[in-house]
Amino acid sequence: MSFIVAIDGPAGTGKGTVTKEIAKKLNLINIDTGSMYRCVTLACMQKGILPSQIDKIQEVLNDIEINLENKSCIQKVFLNGKDVSKEIRTPEVDALVAKFAAIKCVRDKLTPIQRKMGEENNVIMEGRDIGTVVFPNADVKIFLDCSVEERANRRYKQNLKKGIEESYEEVLSSIKERHKLETERKIAPFVKADDAILVDTTNMSIDEVISKIEEIIQNKRNNCSNVC
What we know:
Elements: E1 4-8, H1 15-26, E2 29-32, H2 33-46, H3 54-63, E3 66-71, E4 74-79, E5 82-83, H4 91-101, H5 104-120, E6 123-127, H6 130-134, E7 140-145, H7 148-162, H8 168-184, E8 197-200, H9 206-227
Parallel strand pairs: 1-6, 1-7, 2-6, 7-8
Antiparallel strand pairs: 3-4, 4-5
Helix pairs in contact: 1-9, 2-4, 2-5, 4-8, 7-8
């Protein structure tokens, strides 16, 4: 049987960095489900399709091919055979991804794919609904949280490094709007699973967060070994 670690949390809590490092340390396959929703968003944007045009979105989904490849512990994201790892991380995609992710046919398309990935491998999967919808019976569930101001500050600094020109105020506004859309959507709303372990990263360094999560996972693995 596969071993599944579910990492949920809002943008800017360190999910991406943490899951990559934990995957390397514990020999798990890192799966960023958010990148899959970003691919759908990008594919629709390229065709000028709006979130309200459900029939046209379904047409895109019928033909879409999304592949996540881990090479030298770096995840590359391919949309219809093209590497879009950078394209899906633009402010334009940021502004729309929550709207596309709230659409039923989009989630109906991607959730089974995500489940199949987890059923076949030992994975650490990050997203918004991993512990509540995708894998409610995950071996380990962790919910990363952080103050909205700190999340915006982290994302702002990340954007600067990537050469993305966006003010702190714009980033903060975008994060607040996305959080509102994700928590209020009718389908798979973004909430903490009742049995998820909360880790507040507001005043923690990345190394401290990694150490904490690694300890949680190792304890669970040890307990499973003892029971078996």
